[in-house]
């Protein structure tokens, strides 16, 4: 019996090895066919030999698959291209947008990285965006985010809210520029966090510390501790960033409740500089369960394709600052200048304790000359003037791995 069992075991292993080898050979054969067909298809039809034409007929399935792949690549390339409306068309579209803004009962603005590019903060999916570069296997250029200041678009949004034309702003940005523009906290939902805010989740409710520097230096995907501690309970402070692949649960600054309530009441939604590839997954922000006639009217300002274009009442292809400048002209409203002396970061920020002054090497946002500075002196810590937020581009590789797993499973 033992001898038979041993023989049976050897036979089973041999069969498995033979099967694995057959699979490897089949895969190599298929790869060879794909390379052959791909090489032939690159040639003009008139330049193909009789043998090559016969090979295409013999491998019709492979030809069809390669053609499908090429179509998908072309569609993706078109979606990534930036399109600009000409001056006359842009003016006409902005006039339509102005009418919508004036007559809206509850206007909600959704913002993405495209509104901060004028502040020299790269976007994500533009031609030179963070994820576009990572997808091509390139390194992401460093950016000193502490030197960024609110853009014309940020200041326009603040004024529109002040004049009660905008009720709420839902932002995917972590750069804190909406807050620094003077937009009130109650009117803002920062769905992916704020690089200037750290919190103590041991306190109930969570205790918030606004800082005048980027708190994400030591943090990354699934690692949110900043290295500082709560002055109230001694608990570890953490950043507020929600990376790709994470789910945000903090009440503030994410303010999901405010975002959901605003979306529920919205009759007009204005999307500024967002690819909407993330936001489209949040059904509660679009009220998609409503009948079509009762859904909010959607206006999109973006140079590239978005997955909501077909649902939009109007799509404007233009840079956010250019469109918002024209919009404010149409509305006959002044655009306020950003005044660093009035930046809320200085009144909101909690100074570090003396023992925490060396807990970061990030540049501190300094008030204008003559204004009192409560921030620690970090002059000797900021020799490197090009630094990145710990949130910048994080989670990209995880998303790629998920997609690759799904692709392999299929």
From TrEMBL:
<dbReference type="GO" id="GO:0000785">
    <property type="term" value="C:chromatin"/>
</dbReference>
<feature type="coiled-coil region">
    <location>
        <begin position="46"/>
        <end position="107"/>
    </location>
</feature>
<feature type="active site" description="Proton acceptor">
    <location>
        <position position="192"/>
    </location>
</feature>
<dbReference type="InterPro" id="IPR050134">
    <property type="entry name" value="NAD-dep_sirtuin_deacylases"/>
</dbReference>
<dbReference type="GO" id="GO:0010821">
    <property type="term" value="P:regulation of mitochondrion organization"/>
</dbReference>
<dbReference type="GO" id="GO:0140374">
    <property type="term" value="P:antiviral innate immune response"/>
</dbReference>
<feature type="domain" description="Deacetylase sirtuin-type">
    <location>
        <begin position="87"/>
        <end position="334"/>
    </location>
</feature>
<protein>
    <recommendedName>
        <fullName>NAD-dependent protein deacetylase sirtuin-7</fullName>
        <ecNumber>2.3.1.286</ecNumber>
    </recommendedName>
</protein>
<keyword id="KW-0862">Zinc</keyword>
<dbReference type="GO" id="GO:0005634">
    <property type="term" value="C:nucleus"/>
</dbReference>
<dbReference type="GO" id="GO:0097372">
    <property type="term" value="F:histone H3K18 deacetylase activity, NAD-dependent"/>
</dbReference>
<feature type="binding site">
    <location>
        <position position="203"/>
    </location>
    <ligand>
        <name>Zn(2+)</name>
    </ligand>
</feature>
<keyword id="KW-0808">Transferase</keyword>
<feature type="binding site">
    <location>
        <position position="230"/>
    </location>
    <ligand>
        <name>Zn(2+)</name>
    </ligand>
</feature>
<keyword id="KW-0479">Metal-binding</keyword>
<dbReference type="InterPro" id="IPR003000">
    <property type="entry name" value="Sirtuin"/>
</dbReference>
<dbReference type="InterPro" id="IPR029035">
    <property type="entry name" value="DHS-like_NAD/FAD-binding_dom"/>
</dbReference>
<feature type="binding site">
    <location>
        <position position="233"/>
    </location>
    <ligand>
        <name>Zn(2+)</name>
    </ligand>
</feature>
<keyword id="KW-0175">Coiled coil</keyword>
<dbReference type="GO" id="GO:0002244">
    <property type="term" value="P:hematopoietic progenitor cell differentiation"/>
</dbReference>
<feature type="region of interest" description="Disordered">
    <location>
        <begin position="350"/>
        <end position="410"/>
    </location>
</feature>
<dbReference type="GO" id="GO:0001666">
    <property type="term" value="P:response to hypoxia"/>
</dbReference>
<dbReference type="InterPro" id="IPR026590">
    <property type="entry name" value="Ssirtuin_cat_dom"/>
</dbReference>
<dbReference type="GO" id="GO:0046872">
    <property type="term" value="F:metal ion binding"/>
</dbReference>
<keyword id="KW-0520">NAD</keyword>
<dbReference type="GO" id="GO:0040029">
    <property type="term" value="P:epigenetic regulation of gene expression"/>
</dbReference>
<feature type="binding site">
    <location>
        <position position="200"/>
    </location>
    <ligand>
        <name>Zn(2+)</name>
    </ligand>
</feature>
<dbReference type="GO" id="GO:0070403">
    <property type="term" value="F:NAD+ binding"/>
</dbReference>
<dbReference type="Pfam" id="PF02146">
    <property type="entry name" value="SIR2"/>
</dbReference>
<feature type="compositionally biased region" description="Basic residues">
    <location>
        <begin position="397"/>
        <end position="410"/>
    </location>
</feature>
<comment type="subunit">
    <text>Interacts with UBTF and the RNA polymerase I complex. Interacts with components of the B-WICH complex, such as MYBBP1A, SMARCA5/SNF2H and BAZ1B/WSTF. Interacts with ELK4, leading to stabilization at target promoters for H3K18Ac deacetylation. Interacts with histone H2A and/or histone H2B. Interacts with DNMT1. Interacts with SIRT1.</text>
</comment>
<feature type="compositionally biased region" description="Basic and acidic residues">
    <location>
        <begin position="353"/>
        <end position="363"/>
    </location>
</feature>
<dbReference type="GO" id="GO:0035861">
    <property type="term" value="C:site of double-strand break"/>
</dbReference>
<keyword id="KW-0597">Phosphoprotein</keyword>
<comment type="similarity">
    <text>Belongs to the sirtuin family. Class IV subfamily.</text>
</comment>
<dbReference type="GO" id="GO:0140861">
    <property type="term" value="P:DNA repair-dependent chromatin remodeling"/>
</dbReference>
